[in-house]
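User: Fold this; tokens only.

Assistant: Input:
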Amino acid sequence: MHKHHHRHNDVKNIKVAFFLNLLFTIIEFVGGILTNSMAILSDAVHDMGDSVTLGLSWYFQKLSKKPGDKAYTYGYKRFSLLGAIVNSLILLVGSVVILFNAVPRLLHPEQPDTKGMLLLAVLGVIINGVAMLRLRRGRSLNERVVSLHLLEDVLGWVAVLIGALVMHFVDAPVIDPLLSVAITLFILFNVYRNMRQSFRIILQGSPEKLNLAAAAQAVAALEGVRRAEHLHAWSVDGEYNVLTMHVVVSREMSMREQQQLKQRIRGTLNQMGVQHATIELELFEETGGCQV
């Protein structure tokens, strides 16, 4: 019952954060146009990306609970990668548009409505802060990742708030496009990082945090094992890692002994970050007694 209650809460928390972010994104776009602030519009693009991320996280948080079936034998975890790629493409297009408009402002800066900027910045800190704190109490990895993303948003709005305060008292309109370019470059850096990670998983690259050499040594150190070879590893969604391997044993074993050895191997691999392992046992004589 407690686990069911938590599963309900994690979906509810992301749902609340999504609607808060979506509502404020609309306010930002309108406010950015009215205040003539490229920094506000840049943050609006950022928050639009966050809204897509939160919406997809909300959907995939529910979808990921579905067990594997005939169509998707590993389950529905990898659908989250599709969401990450869609979000990255939206942010990429939005960032290019913002840069296209912000760079000319560096040469010919225009004074924005600093009072309107201050109001929006304060609202940005409050709304993103509430959403972040709501998710920070969650225990799921999805909630924690999204809450960290919202923390970045809060810090971005603090920067806009400081910039608006400076421009309110000092005639320095160039600060607005500078903030816009800085925020946009930060977005593009994260887009690059997320796309690189997503494509590594889709192309079934070996999980970055999984040391295959160390895994082979750990398995080879178990009683009755001569060596571990032909290790192949990939990640389903960046969290759920799969590994296949051949294990050469030193003597013939009964079915019961084989099952016990496989359980020990899986326990060892699980501690190293492998959630699913397929193990093929081979007798030392079957390999011709050769050392690999």
